[in-house]
Amino acid sequence: MAPITNAPNGDTPLLRVLLRPTESIPGLVSRYTVHPEHKEWQSMQQLSIKTPSGPLEYTITHRPRVTKRLHMELDENGSLVVVAPRHWSKRHIKATLSQNTSRVERFLVQAREKQIAPLRYADGEAHLYLGQRYPLTIVAIEDGRSKVAFTGQEIRVEIRKEGKANVRTVLQSWYGKQALKVLGERFQLIKESVPWAKDRSVPLKVRRMKRTWGNCSSKGLIKLNTHLIKAGIPVIDSVIAHELCHLEQMNHGKKFYMLLESLNPDWRRDRNHLRVEGSVYLL
After folding, report:
1. Whose CB has fewer CB within 10 Å in the chain, the N or C terminal residue?
2. Rounded percentage of the chain residues whose pLDDT exceeds 90
3. Which is higher by pLDDT, 179 or 162?
């Protein structure tokens, strides 16, 4: 699966907000974010752990008051920072994180969501489409059906009943239709270039999902997240390539990444983009 472990674009300042864990984990508690210029962020060390969705990078730092357990924070880019007791070894830190990967990824999603201001669906507000931001132009109409049109300069919403909820409903419906069209076209184009998939019937479904950008079932059914329509074409193509590789390798082992590298040498860049920007796409 291509997981949703993402972050906002950094426009919203980081806040010193405690995210209380739903249950305690030995050696891994106290989840919060801090301002990126925190004076105690010192001696940064960049490392990574393996997760079901691939490598997850993190940075280790230390603080005098952190003596017993790990603390997790976000930096200004929404990346994971682990504040560890100074006497803990890198191996012990890595083992603790590796034993709690689902908890770590859940923290990333929850923390990053708190950094993003909700959309207002108001006239002039910028909304994403294929990796670019365009202003909404909301036009009240008396007759006809509500609809959305993309002009290349704006996203024009013609609506009979004004109000945030109605604009949101109409806009989401339009995103869904665009996703079916664009993601379907990109899927067929890339599939035809993949040796193990081009002569194979591969069913595709496009739907709204909260936890993954895409997945591939053991029966070869591929699902893509509707929200990908807000990302740029290179990112969309990267997720499609990722899932097509699962037709050959239903895991994230060395052979899988060798296949992915052959299809998309820039997959690391694209994965990082989704981790940094992905929460904005989910709004």
Report:
1. C
2. 57
3. 179
Question: For residue 38, is pLDDT > 70?
Answer: no
Beta-strand pair 212-216/132-140: unpaired
Q: For the ranges 34-43, 241-250, 257-266, which has the lowest average pLDDT?
A: 34-43
CA distances, 139 to each of 136, 192, 254 (Å) = 10, 41, 52
Is residue 232 within 8 Å of 266, Cβ to Cβ?
Answer: no
Q: How many other CB atoms are there within 10 angstroms of residue 3's CB atom?
A: 22
- pLDDT band for position 45 (50/70/90)? low
Count H helices, E strands: the chain? 6, 14
The CATH label, of 3.10.129.10, 3.30.2010.10, 3.40.630.30, 3.40.50.620, for the domain at 126-281 is: 3.30.2010.10
